[in-house]
Amino acid sequence: MAKTLRQTDDGTARELEYVTDPDEQLEKKPGTRYGAAELGFRHYWYPAFLSRQLGKKPKSVMLLGENLVFVRANGRPYALFDRCVHRGMQLSEGKCWTEGTITCPYHGWTYRLRDGELIAALTDGPESAVVGKKGKGVRSYPVEERNGVIYVYMGDGNPPALEEDVPEELLKPEYVFEAVTSVWNSNWRPAVENGYDASHATYVHRYSLRWRTQFNLPPAWAGKVESQVEGKYLIQRRRGPFGFEANYPGFGLWPRHAWLRKALAKARKKFGPKGTPMIAGVRLPCLIVNHYSYYSHIRYSIPIDAKHTRNFQMLAGRFHGLKALAFRLQYWLWHRWVFHKWFNEGQDKWIVEHLDYSAPEQFFRPDSSIVQLRKYFEKNARTSDPIDGMKE
């Protein structure tokens, strides 16, 4: 039995007791691996840009609290730490005078993109003594470009194969996908947790155009949620009890406008698709993956710093030919706006940005999904580079 202080109507405080099961709650304690991961888990591949977003001009991005500069040269992307070792100037403000190099805009120190080695100091002449000296280069990062996405490895330089960390829908040629990126003003952890939260959707998204046009009758509430590990995923299995409409003591009927929900559900039975129900999953380092009847929704929530997150949202389907073209067209005319812009970047983003993630928490039954997510990350997050490309 735990205790808490609560203010009463007359302004005094009295001590209340409430039941909490330590096995059913994992707090965000700084001493835990998950609690200390404000800037994420470094030893994974992360998407940095969509290929269309990077040209030959240097481009800066912050990932996991670290500033990187990306440049495309010799037909492929490269990444360096975005700071000249001379005086700390941003290399991303410099120029690439020759293919495969980048030059600092302050004093002309020039680095090789392939490995970050200092190859020239233009304002000190061709015989500069600093060139070739140990410690005069900048850090370079492993980079891979696959199917229109540029990935970077933020660990110590011995990365696993890209396939270890990236869902197959984004790598295999039989899939097509479209993507949109955005920045949320929150830490990455509540952004991921929101995607796996078992009970918020039926309230936060109750009037969403996405659900209305799917003719859905989602449950108004759900009970305990159980998760199980399937390969690289933690998969959510809802156990109930579910409910669709009820009278709450002291509140009344919920949900309101139940007649509309029922009418839409009736129309779905007659005219709507007969696809399989959505399956929610999460995987390291920061992915939410939802599998629907004919496509998968993949969302990366990547730490920028402790208070900002870059989201890559992707819809992927196994199509080719005219069906692939139809899938892309449907995305740009419908899913991009109704799903990614209004549903996720509108409703979910608003919730996450207004959440005080540092506040104390008191869980209820559906929060079993959040507890299981935190335990999974706590137990399974990679803490060092894999040896010889193999998992720990």
What features would you highlight for this structure?
392 residues, 21 strands, 4-stranded antiparallel β-sheet, disordered N terminus, 7-stranded antiparallel β-sheet, Rieske Iron-sulfur Protein, Naphthalene 1,2-dioxygenase Alpha Subunit, Chain A, domain 1, alpha+beta, elongated, 3 domains
Number of domains: 3
Q: State the oligomer.
A: single chain
Q: What would you call the shape?
A: elongated
| Beta fraction | 25-35%
Main structural class: alpha+beta
Give the rounded overall mean pLDDT: 84
**Physical arrangement of strands within the biggest beta sheet:** 13-21-20-19-18-15-14
The string of secondary-structure elements, in order, is EEEEEEEEEEEEHEHHHEEEEHEEEEHH
CATH architecture of the largest domain: Alpha-Beta Complex
Which sheet architecture does the biggest sheet show?
A: 7 strands, antiparallel
Residue runs with pLDDT of under 50 for 5 or more positions: 1-22
Q: What gap, in angstroms, lies between the N and C termini?
A: 39 Å
- The H-level CATH homologous superfamily of the largest domain, spelled out, is Naphthalene 1,2-dioxygenase Alpha Subunit, Chain A, domain 1
- Total helices: the number is 7
Task: Report the count of strand segments.
Answer: 21
Helical residues, percent: 10-25%
Q: How large, in whole angstroms, is the Cα Rg? A: 25 Å
